[in-house]
Amino acid sequence: MQNTNIQEEWFSKGEQYATEINEMVDFGEKNGWENWKGKEPEDKRANLAESIFKLLKAANQNGDTENFRIFFPPAHTPIIPLLENKSQSIEHLHFISGQKIVFLTGTSYETRQAYLLDHDQVTKLDENIRAIGKSKQNDVFAIATDTKISFYKGWNGPLINEFQLDQAANFGITELIPFNDGSKVLMVTSDGIYLISQKEEKLIHPINEDDEEDWTPNIDMENAALSNDNSYIVVGDQSYDHRILDSEGNTLGSIGAQSSYPHFCLFSKDDSQLITNSCHFYNGITIGINSDQYAGADIEAYTESDDYTIIDEEMRVYMGTATKNYYILGDAYGYIKAFDRNGKRLWRHFLGSTISGMALSDDEETLWVAAYSGILHKLKLGKGHRDTHTIGNGNHYEEFRLLIWKNESQIWKW
User: Based on the domain organization, do 182 and 323 belong to the same domain?
Assistant: First the structure.
């Protein structure tokens, strides 16, 4: 009887909360948030979190997760109390093929563990892996250990190149982006952003312009992007504006922050546009410039201009990917949102907790999204909502979410 009561309370309160949140956000977007006079909806199910988690574990052990999901649609807010000692960042998501991706747990300064996810089966990979990157084209994977970076043509494919690391050997790697031919790699770290090849480890950001003696390349909010054709590199961090570089790391132009701190950058799928995000606390501004401006770009900070398009004026963007026609951006609040190149918002979908990773299948039908909550979500884009508890208007179907938590005996599927 107790399970029935818990189930009814979970379901009815969850449905009500999702309905109210969706109505409020729809109103705010259409009419302006200043005109919303209603109260903020509350999800009052935190008291059920422990019980739900026990039932979820039992469903996993009994092979009954599909049934469990029908009666207990997943939610983020009620399980926040469980996250305190269990959550971890899930990063370096890369699509392999079919329903298969690779990912890492842990941030750049933590001990990491790499995994392979095939459909809903998770396999641990070599514990020496510290970072994984994938090229924009040609399926080249870069795998970093403490001492070297190895390049493979395809996942588990032939080794095509390998670099022994010198000064970069002990850097925590925020992001690793191999070039399409495996000849070099962009390594993003809080000790600087490097272009690494067989012949050198070249610091390309930041640069010691005044030749200061006690200068260090240490940075925060380090971020970079490589164009799909590998002609352009973009680099930025909390203290330095985004700069556009050529493929050798020479400066071609700069893009001033329109909010406080440069935080994220991404090229469109066809390289015709570059978007850059700058943030202030949990919010931010994203702008786009066209490819004919890359060389010689000179966008002034905090200045309205016809030289850029405003893509979004709300999100602090942590992660993103480009489809053929639009961008999917993940923010500090746990939302993913899609925008076209003119800044039209196409949809939004709430997952919960700051977004830490994203991988899109080549057919653009499946999106894997990870968050600092230690949860990895698998979404079928445009397939229609799975249940009445979905927050967002993106019409997406969540196939499952995996709770990849610290101090747990296994990975739990919900």
Answer: yes
